[in-house]
Write a structure and sequence with these properties.
By secondary structure, this protein is α+β, with helices and mostly antiparallel strands. The protein has 2 domains: 26-93, no CATH class; 97-289, Jelly Rolls. It has helices at residues 2-8, 26-33, 38-44, 49-54, 58-61, 69-73, 86-93; strands at 97-99, 104-108, 115-120, 125-126, 135-139, 147-151, 157-166, 170-180, 182-186, 189-193, 205-211, 216-221, 229-239, 245-254, 264-273, 280-283, 286-289. The strands form 4 sheets. Strands 1, 2, 3, 5, 6, 8, 13 and 15 form an 8-stranded antiparallel sheet that branches. Strands 4-7-14-11-12 form a 5-stranded antiparallel sheet, with no helix packed on it. A two-stranded antiparallel ribbon has the order 9-10. Strand 9 and strand 10 form a beta hairpin. It is elongated. The relative contact order is 0.15. Mean pLDDT is 87; it is low at 280-291. It comes from Salvia divinorum (Maria pastora). This is F-box protein PP2-A13-like isoform X2. It holds the Pfam family PP2.
Length: 291
Amino acid sequence: MGANASSMTGEPAGPRLRPRLEDIPESCVALVLSYLDPPEIAKMARINRAFRAASTADFIWVPKLPSNFEYILSKLPDQALRDKGKMDIYARLCRRITFDGGTKEVWIDKRSGGVCLAISSKAMAITGIDDRRYWNHIPTDESRFQTVAYLQQIWWLQVDGELDFQLPKGTYSLFFRLHLGKVGKRLGRRVCNHDNVHGWDLKPAQFQLTTQNGHLGVTRCMIENLGNWANYQAGEFVVEDPNSSTKVKFSLTQIDCTHTKGGLCVDSVLIRPSSLGKDVFSVDGKAFVGC
């Protein structure tokens, strides 16, 4: 009786099938993913094949790429990446790209897509760098460039550099990455020799940047990070025209000749969107801590 009554209603016998994630159209999944940031998209792509396929849609990644991504791709020796999907391009740009003979690097922040740059000490003009009485280039794996300029002793400290690069519109901060003490390793452990550190507690150092449109940033402070790397901010600058190259000149000086100073490691200059802050950043999964 019950079976006959059930069949008369026209409903199929047996349990009803519940909708599954796999039943959601791929286009709908892709639309939802477009509202997430890249790390969240990567997590969602692990759910199943449908989510993984949807996560590769170009329309998801086009707005997440920086406006100058083609200019950055031009720094790659292999141009085959231009034919790849936008997700593959985004993933490649999150890894550092070296240019200018390996003395400069560019990458994008994996969460925001903001463009970041690093300039090696070897790309800077350092007063006395050719005289080993004053400066030495020492190898270290604590630098992304695997080498830093180490100051033995000098009266007149002057480090100058410049960058000519096409940047997306926005506000950027420029930092000098410095360390007091000579870094090295002994029996596999990190050691830092402080014996030669002197002169930094007497007068402040000056950090400065200028741009081609006349913007000037100046910061004066004491260098006092003994035994630790720190990012010293020179200032900020604004990029208004993303279609033109931005020319930035920067310097670190301590030219009071009443005393000598020594024991300073100059690693690099960092340029990154101001919205990212300065405390911690990473390249290729390796973290670098600022001040």
